[in-house]
Amino acid sequence: MAGYNLEAAPLKDDVDIVIPTIRSLDFLEQWRPFLQHYHLIIVQDGDPSINIRVPDGYDYELYNRNDINRILGPRASCISYKDGGCRCFGFMVSKKKYIYTIDDDCFVAKDPSGKEINVIAQHIKNLETPSTPHYFNTLYDPFRDGTDFVRGYPFSLREGVQTAISHGLWLNIPDYDAPTQLVKPRERNTRYVDAVMTIPKGVLYPMCGMNLAFNRELIGPAMYFGLMGEGQPISRYDDMWAGWAAKVVCDHLGFGVKTGLPYLWHSKASNPFVNLKKEHKGLHWQEEMVPFFQNLRLSKESDTATKCYMELSKMTKENLTKVDPYFENLADAMVTWIEAWDELNPPVKNEACDEELNPPVKKGTIKDVKAK
Ligand SMILES: O=c1ccn([C@@H]2O[C@H](COP(=O)(O)OP(=O)(O)O[C@H]3O[C@@H](CO)[C@H](O)[C@H]3O)[C@@H](O)[C@H]2O)c(=O)[nH]1
Ligand SMILES: [Mn+2]
């Protein structure tokens, strides 16, 4: 692929870019310098008979609802329809180590010096350096250039843990819920905070899927964006559900989650009145869902993301069905998701000794992390 500087595309063979879309992919024109060397997995939501155009020069796979039904058969029921949560189908069909997922109404942002931000380069830095979930560093990420652990930071904790998730932020339209958008229609985020930080162990956060990267080998099976959209009582909590679940799984398995840089420019295409209709049950249920995730404890037998997720599905059924019968369906869909994940991502066997080549990742270990 000619034309753009390969240095702007680090680890190009290890990253897939997943885009859910009900609109157009013209936004990719502006991203060429940063995204054109990567492979795209586009999940076309809504009417599958609509032909969407992918800008020339991009290498991509495109899946519509008919494709999802054909590939997953009855298990396609676990993939949301008419909700951005359909993106997780892309996570499942990818074979790469890292996923970067971005929405179709997002554009390249500039840092305060006026330089265009290379989102993937920053996410990869975040993912390839350790996290520090056990003790907070007041100068934020000690693995960034020009900073370190502050005085009083125990040396025994400076190795950190492997990072599984990098949550990027947004300039212009912030990720507010519909009521907040409705009362502050003109609010724009102009504040560029030059910081990356680890979200401490035991602390949950509202994960947004708009500008998100993760290590699918470590946490992929826990990145299920739930059952939302058409036919369901709730929408737009897809990324929240995935974020809460993935964080408790990361905490349990000893992996870290970072938030902060990189920023992108969000020029919101969704409508807050429509969003309020889609979100209103979630606005109530989050008061029960968050304490559920805060209080659950996974067992020590759950030593992989898959096993954690199966245990989580059982706990969802036991604890949240009293909130609404919907959660029973969600819990079943979580199991279906894992079955489908395993079918598309079978464990790799070493035929010489008949051992699995991808055994459970040892808790809290860091592979290939360069010491500072
Ligand atoms: O039915 C749908 C609706 C949307 N999409 C695609 O999903 C992403 C995000 O959609 P949108 O820009 O409308 O959503 P926002 O309100 O701006 O952003 C947040 O909502 C989250 C919850 O879904 C989302 O992760 C956040 O970023 C776009 O690419 C749409 O095209 C869809 O596929 N199906
Ligand atoms: Mn948007």
TrEMBL record:
Keywords: Cell wall biogenesis/degradation, Glycoprotein, Golgi apparatus, Isomerase. The keyword Cell membrane does not apply. The keyword Iron does not apply. InterPro entries: Nucleotide-diphossugar_trans, RGP, RGP_fam. It is found in: Cytoplasm, Cytosol; Golgi apparatus. Residues 351-372 are annotated as: Disordered. Its main location: cytoplasm. It comes from the Eukaryota. Its EC number is 5.4.99.30. It catalyses: UDP-beta-L-arabinofuranose = UDP-beta-L-arabinopyranose. Belongs to the RGP family. Probable UDP-L-arabinose mutase involved in the biosynthesis of cell wall non-cellulosic polysaccharides. This is UDP-arabinopyranose mutase. The lineage of its organism: Eukaryota, Viridiplantae, Streptophyta, Embryophyta, Tracheophyta.
